[in-house]
Amino acid sequence: MVFLDEMPWMDTPRSGFMTAFEHFWNGWGAGQDNLMLIVCGSATSWIQDNLINSNGGLYDRVNEEIQLTPFTLCETEQLLQMQEVTLSRYDILQLYMAVGGIPMYLSYVQPGFSLAQTIDRLYFAPKAKLSNEFERLFRSIFKSPEHYMSIIRLLAKRQSGYSREEISRETGIASGKGFTEMLRALEASDFIEYYKPFENSKRNMKYRLTDPFCLFYLSQVEGRGRGENFWRDNENLSQLRTWRGQAFENACLKHVGLIKAAMGVGGVSSDNAAWTLQGMDDQRGMQIDLIINRSDKVVNLCEMKFVNEEFEVTKDYEMRLRSRLNWMIEHVSRRHNVQMTLVTTYGLKYGIHSGIFQRVITLDSLFSA
Length: 369
Description:
Elements: E1 2-4, H1 17-27, E2 37-39, H2 44-52, H3 73-82, H4 89-99, H5 103-107, H6 115-124, H7 133-141, H8 145-155, H9 164-171, H10 177-188, E3 192-195, E4 206-209, H11 212-221, H12 230-233, H13 238-254, H14 256-262, E5 270-277, E6 286-294, E7 298-305, E8 311-312, H15 315-331, E9 337-344, E10 348-349, E11 359-361, H16 363-366
Parallel strand pairs: 1-2, 7-9, 8-10, 9-11
Antiparallel strand pairs: 3-4, 5-6, 6-7
Helix pairs in contact: 4-11, 4-13, 7-8, 11-13
């Protein structure tokens, strides 16, 4: 068994590596019955272009493909248990929202520390392991990483994302083949998502940043000059509450399959997207965190709420939800049934205004296997 780790970095300019590798495999290796060759690399787009989708000497040579994606919340919990780290699911979710499902980052979490201590140790303490990880990460994965980082920094500014044309204009990167390859590489590496907003045509597709580590680092760490006990001393800071809300929405979008399973429609195909309607004149805009447009003629309007207790629906909030519900009923086929769904941490506090929600999905559902 021959294992070549980080193969993309062997293919340096003028090295002739790929020509030699093709000659080795086609001229000798492929004919050996007792040889297994395994190659891997964190530069996913290079693997796809040069091996999986190769049109040259390695065309159709791959026997098996394994794409390692970030851990889910369930897998994150299992890894922490193996490391004898004891945290509640509420805290595991926050940890996941801050570092993502990256096993290496999660391996830095040590038993005996609270969530606040862990976040401070990872990001804000002197010589914290992740304090300079952003640039180091992109420089280790991509050649000429500055353009990639500029795209990520832009996407971090708007939760709903940007169109290809907007990204090109705002970053100053010419919209050509190279730009297309950058976007495809970021998507293949699980940093960004290419999606169609609800009610928009395919011509209005957008890119949005989905990597939890990048979202947290760019909003809370980079250039902030935080103290070494920042998280412990500022857990209730308004900007952290804002980040929690946005990061929770992102975590939910990564676990849509589990949300559907909790609703009992896991086997029903659907289009899933967020949706934003800009306000006109003096009117407020309208946003729906997640729309699950199901093939069984049901549309679920999902609200995501990260709170540390049961969520309570006020009169004003109910009226805003009814406004969104009525708008959706007017803009979808009459054959569709539109339902309000709440995805939250600890469930719904039932009262005179809570009946607006027909389904409630709690934190435990996001940890399902």
